[in-house]
Design brief:
The structure is a homodimer.
Chain A (H helix, E strand, L loop, with lengths): L9 E5 H14 L15 H9 L4 E4 L2 H9 L5 E4 L7 H4 L6 E5 L2 H10 L3 E5 L14 H10 L3 E7 L10 H22 L3 E4 L13 E2 L9 H5 L8 E11 L3 E4 L18 E7 L2 E6 L9 E4 L4 H5 L4 E6 L2 E7 L6
Parallel strand pairs in A: 1-14, 2-3, 3-4, 4-5, 5-6, 6-7, 7-8
Antiparallel strand pairs in A: 1-9, 9-10, 9-13, 10-12, 11-12, 14-15
Chain lengths: ~325, ~325
């Protein structure tokens, strides 16, 4: 199969760039030092490549992601790094080791009631989102143990620091966050101190495992944050209309692109706006014509991938493999 | 099945409000005066209700939508209101009447080569997107006829006028757009003058069919534009975390919500931001607690629906039907 045989819009992953990103991260954070976050790519075939490189534990954001990873035989050690109030589907999995994040007595009760056996105490390290206050983490761990749960340690996501541009300033802010997490870890016990992401993997030396996911495919937002990975995923699109007044229209839009970080990028063009099935742009140093196939770079990889049923691994004009994006939904 | 049995996040449609919206539109634009746009809901079961009310022709934005409508037996008269460069899948449909928009010689050639028999000349009426210049529409129609295609008329989408707030000003601007379309219609010939949307259905008296879709489910953007329809679709979510500092976290985020029109709305709350699987908000006149199930109103219905595999028709606490969102993808 050739690139020209694909229906557009289509998620396209360059094998060389993907492999380079995977290798670079595996060298920086070998084995279980990285717990790849599947939410960024939602594709078990891609997770399988990470597993083959030695990353045997994975991070998930939804029950569906945990189920799908277990069904794919990648259930060595799955962390659902999110609070869940109905844990029955997790407790029913008999082919995976499942650990779920808790940050309240209610979520501890839900884990126990659902048949989950292991939990991680989710600690708030500064991002206004989930997580128990650091000073209450030990108490929550005691409560979890009183319910018969194994407490494996702590997690805390320094998400508000991911896009700080200057490395030393980023390191300083991460250190502040991780001081809170290490204090909680001392109170909680357990082995795991889980944190981080693609934006902090290189400076977070305090956590003993990093939950990065975007690094394998990348997007323009993380590229601006100087993450040392290459843009492996683009969206193949077709120019369907051109106007003499100087604009072009490609056949992908809001239903093919996560838009929370703004417009996508097209090399040699200025993007004007996106509609449901259209991206309107003007030429900016490059020639375009109706019928041309172009590459569009999404600004945020995670919600973009969630809009597509499959992604294609390519090498030049050859489509090597087509992978189902099989971890979508809830 | 009860509402409490649903896994969250879940698309939930209130039957009474949906039926009222459908009835109101069917009264304003009966039969083929409305050509409902399926891109707004991507669900053939919902289209079937419109068909039963007399709207036998439909508008589609993708080849996949046309295929799905044909497969569902709703192929009386399907207009693909978008340019397509590979029309072979359209030409292969033998159980539907398919008309495709064209705005250039290349798209005419693609229609003819793909085995499509009928086209509509897409005319630019002011929105910077697809559409031939009005003064060139007749010439393009001649070219299409020279290729053996039946030209059914013209379409022109006044999308830039949809959100004008003041009715008389909106009417004035729509009239300007439609003057261009009627001029093109005179040159092109054919019966159809297709235009409009939920934001202009009540003032566009020049087109002889209106391509509205959002009216059935609605969103906060069109509500601000004073469309006389009610919010029939919400997303059922669960509060999974609460912080003493005053914020709450619900289990839906960027992968459950189209974000191009901004944050969603929660009654009695102020939404702070959305992350992949989280919406963070503070209480604003209402009490919330972990475990509560809440309704979240999306700001833009079309890309929101594209993120979900199914929608549930409900009446109070009863789930009446579960419909697959079966027109997703391309």
């Amino acid at each position: 199969m050739k690139l020209s045989d694909l229906t557009t819009p289509a998620l396209v992953v360059e094998r060389d760039l993907l492999d380079a990103n995977l290798a670079k991260m595996a060298e920086a954070l070998p084995g279980t030092r990285l717990r790849p976050h599947v939410k960024a790519f939602k594709t078990t075939e891609l997770a399988r490549r990470m597993h083959a490189l030695g990353h045997t534990g994975f991070t998930c954001a939804t029950v569906r992601e945990v189920e799908g990873m277990a069904a794919a035989g990648l259930g060595d050690d799955l962390l659902l790094a999110n609070e869940v109030l109905d844990c029955r589907r997790l407790g029913a999995l008999d082919n995976a080791r499942v650990t779920v994040a808790v940050d309240s007595a209610i979520t501890v009760d839900a884990a126990a009631a659902g048949g989950v056996r292991e939990v991680l105490i989710d600690v708030n390290v500064g991002l206004p989102r989930c997580g128990v206050a650091p000073e209450k983490a030990g108490q929550l761990a005691d409560y979890a143990r009183s319910k018969g749960l194994e407490v494996r340690g702590v997690m805390g996501y320094e998400g508000h620091v991911m896009l700080v541009e200057e490395t030393e300033e980023k390191r300083r802010q991460v250190e502040e966050c991780m001081a809170l997490l290490l204090k909680a870890s001392a109170d909680v016990g357990g082995d795991l101190v889980s944190a981080g992401g693609t934006g902090t993997f290189h400076v977070n030396t305090w956590a003993n495992e990093i939950q990065a996911g975007s690094y394998c495919l990348m997007d323009t937002t993380y590229a601006h944050a100087h993450a040392p990975f290459q843009q492996a995923l683009t969206i193949l699109a077709t120019i369907i209309s051109a106007n003499e007044a100087g604009w072009f229209v490609a056949d992908l839009g809001l239903k093919a692109l996560g838009m929370d970080h703004g417009n996508p990028t097209i090399e040699g063009a200025s993007v004007w706006y996106c509609a449901d099935e259209h991206t309107v742009f003007s030429a900016d140093g490059k020639d375009f014509a109706v019928g041309d196939r172009i590459r569009v770079i999404p600004s945020h990889i995670d919600p973009t991938v969630a809009l597509h049923a499959e992604m294609h691994l390519v090498d030049g004009d050859d489509v090597l493999e087509t992978w189902p994006v099989d971890l979508r939904g809830w």
